[in-house]
Amino acid sequence: MFTTVLVANRGEIAIRVMRTLREMGIRSVAVYSDADRDALFVQFADEAHALGAGPSADTYLNIPKILEVAAASGAEAIHPGYGFLAENAPFARACEAAGVTFIGPPADAIDSMGSKTAARALMDAAGVPIVPGVTEGVADTAEARGIADDIGYPVAVKAAAGGGGKGFRVALTPDDLEDAFEGARREGEKFFADSTVYLERYLPEPRHVEIQILADGHGTTLWLGERDCSVQRRHQKLVEETPSPIVSDALRQRMGEASVLAAEAVGYRSAGTLEYLVSGEEFFFLEMNTRIQVEHTVTEMVTGMDLVREQIRIAAGEAIGITQDEVAPRGHAFECRINAEDAERRFLPTPGPITAYREPSGPGVRTDSGVQSGSVISDMYDPMVAKLITWDVDRESARKRMLRALEEYVVEGPTTLIPFHIWLLNQQEFIDGGACHAAMKVMSESNTPLPARDGGPPPAPQAPEGEPVSERTMVAEVSGRRFDVRLFIPEKDLGPSGAAPAPKRTREKKAAGGHGGAGATGEVHSPMQGTVLSVAVAVGQAVAVGEVLCIVEAMKMENEVTAHTAGSITAVHVEAGQGVSADELIAVIGAAGADGG
After folding, report:
1. CATH 3.30.470.20 residue ranges in the chain?
2. Interval 492-517: pLDDT, tens
3. Are 473 and 485 in contact (CB under 8 A)?
4. CA torsion angle for 171, 173, 175, 180 (degrees, to 10)?
């Protein structure tokens, strides 16, 4: 067994891996960027090494530098977590060349499943059902039109190297195909340095169900049940659960057996996940994730297994200690992704410092996090704050336990998805086992306030437009009963003695228009700090309400800035590739027919 393992990742997954290493008596080594110098995972490790400043390409994706740290620290193995280098075959090969064990599958298996086109062909040959479509890259729009006509609309256009919703576009009709094709190619090139795309039949509102597998180097491959990940927005998972409320015992068995065939077809070793689209009793291969999944936690809760420990043991050459017949999932588990995002503003990222933080606890509650009070959610990385997981004997009990835990969770500073999760888990469609596709579409495409909950706190009183107010809390007793009282005081009324720190709420003068802020003059402002990927309008162009003006990338997400009013563009203040700050002026919309002179 290893004595020292380097964890080539950050945040909650780094701490998750380090906890298992500590239980196994193995020293952990962290690597960190300058932006993460004070992060909790750095403090948690037994030893930590700086990777320097700059974006991920210069730090967490810097293979030579990470291998230098492995050599300097005496690490015999590297655990990549998920994201970054977790599914990077050249990194796995570089580890092997350096004499360091990669805690993950063989590089050839990563290669086999890294290209969606090659993976589809492999799965088809192995007898795993695939969605009707092509298994080779499509050269251009003209070729795409011929293929789409053959398989029928709607069609999905996917980046061959894509994942996590990146490089995925849908063409509902032939008129949509060119935009979908070019958008998927652009994202494939940007996020994966591969512009190859392919087409397949788009299944409207299928369920997204995945099978966890575990394979060792001694001929054993197990499937550990399924996870339902159907509650998504823009193909980004929000809530995961096991078992799936729509999977029958017979379907589960067929999916599990197909997943073993898929893993064996590529010589897989380690933990991995086969993802499927499910419609009724049919299932179709979507992709294989050759790493530990974000949502591996719910499988651990129902099986009692530590999947990270199994990864480490397999990488060290040990055999899986149980048989398929001994895999016995029990109860039900949910995971809610607590992201620093504002669901009421189309899930806009909300980076910033955490001013207060308290995690829930109690029976059947687990929190995997990488933050504490004083931590900063950086705009350089994804917006995940933590993962909240609950377990109970059945689905309804686990749902109620999750609601209790969400109510206990305190995160002050960045807006998080906690209110959204509370709202979602109370929806009758969700209670009945539905995926809430329609509700997620509405919230992803418009600024949609969450309805007030019965018995919840009253809304803050309205202040004059644009006037900042400060919130104060106090405790009052009336007839022996304790009440928590919230006061919203205009800042102009606070004297010097009222300068105690408190969260500030500003009644914005600008009303959000689409994904951008807009003032009464027709000014459109960036709702976030980020990079302008493209500008879709020019001076003199007429625009309609909701029309896309530009796309701003922030925290790995593409965000559309749209027109809040109809009119004519009189000024454009940004260009592709330009960095913008939050609230920076993007464009100005004048009355219809106006121009910029």
Report:
1. 119-131+207-330, 336-452
2. 666 554 444 444 443 333 333 344 55
3. yes
4. 0
